[in-house]
Structures are given as structure tokens and as C-alpha cells.
Specification:
The protein is mainly alpha-helical. The protein has eight helices and no strands. Helix 2 runs antiparallel to helix 3, helix 4 packs antiparallel against helix 5 and helix 4 crosses helix 6. The longest helix has 22 residues.
């Protein structure tokens, strides 16, 4: 005797449910394709992510360095180290030193370079050692990421893949 009643014996059970078969490969493929298309359309076009009230730590490397340059320029004009420390508090000391070194080395404006150097010295960083620690491959990757984001290219796909 079976623990389950025969088809049609139990009240309220429809006979067709007992003969359920697994979906075909084509059905699964169509379902997955629909999920992907729906995710792209809904996630990127209908309900895109909107960043509000975020910290500068979430910026791309090139935008973060622009922010660090603005902090250094502000310090160069006011000499308020307490304000500069407060504005850079979201960065680790290593990242502060590396970004200040890149800003001091890469800027075409001598006043901005001098402000970055002065802020680095006031914070107690050795910018020459920090500049040596920044690899050329990392700087090239920063430039490529900025170019891709600026051109619109595959920036959305890269964000989606990074999310996964």
C-alpha cells in the first residue's frame, strides 16, 4: 500500500497535477533570456540606480584625485590643516598619500602641484615614496576607466558585472 492516494481517490486533488513533467530546454532558455532582458530594461532604463548623498570614497580614481586636488588647492589658499584633514578623513592614509603624489606629479599647474606637496608635507607623508608605489599599470587603468566612462562605452555593463 502506498503512502499516497491513487490519482482521483483523494478529494480536492486534480488528476492532471500528478502527471507533471519537467520543462524542456527551450522553455528554460526562453525563461532565462526573459529574465536577462527584463533585468537590463528594468534595471538600466526604467528604474536606474540614482546615487545621492554618497561619499567621495565611491568616486572613480580620476574623480577622486580631482577631489583631492580641490582639497589641496583649498589648503594652499587657507592653510587650514584641520579642514583638509576633515575633508580627507574618508580615505586611508596610504590612499591620501598616493593621490596627493599623483596630483602633485600630474598637474600642469605649478600652484596646484605646490599645494599638493605642501598638504602632503603638513600631513606627514613622503610623497616621493608614495609616487613610486603608484604603478604605471594602475595609472593607465585609471585613464582607461575614465575614457570608457566618458565615452559611454561599456560602462553600464562594467558596473553590472562588478555588481555580480
Amino acid at each position: 500500500m502506498s503512502a499516497y492516494p491513487a490519482e482521483g481517490d483523494a478529494p480536492g486533488i486534480r488528476p492532471g497535477l500528478a502527471a507533471w513533467t519537467a520543462p524542456s530546454g527551450r522553455t528554460v532558455a526562453v525563461f532565462v533570456a526573459g529574465l536577462l532582458v527584463g533585468w537590463i530594461v528594468l534595471g538600466w532604463y526604467v528604474f536606474p540606480v540614482k546615487w545621492v548623498d554618497t561619499t567621495p570614497a565611491d568616486l572613480r580614481d580620476d574623480a577622486r584625485r580631482t577631489y583631492v586636488q580641490m582639497v589641496a588647492d583649498s589648503y594652499g589658499r587657507t592653510n587650514r590643516l584641520d579642514i583638509a584633514r576633515e575633508r580627507l578623513a574618508w580615505l586611508t592614509p596610504e590612499r591620501q598619500a598616493a593621490d596627493l603624489a599623483v596630483v602633485a606629479a600630474d598637474t600642469a599647474d605649478p600652484t596646484a602641484a605646490q599645494s599638493a606637496q605642501a598638504l602632503g608635507q603638513a600631513l606627514g607623508y613622503n610623497l616621493a615614496a608614495a609616487a613610486a608605489a603608484v604603478t604605471p599599470a594602475a595609472a593607465a587603468a585609471d585613464g582607461a576607466a575614465a575614457q570608457t566612462a566618458a565615452s559611454g562605452g561599456m560602462a553600464g555593463a562594467a558596473r553590472a558585472l562588478a555588481w555580480l
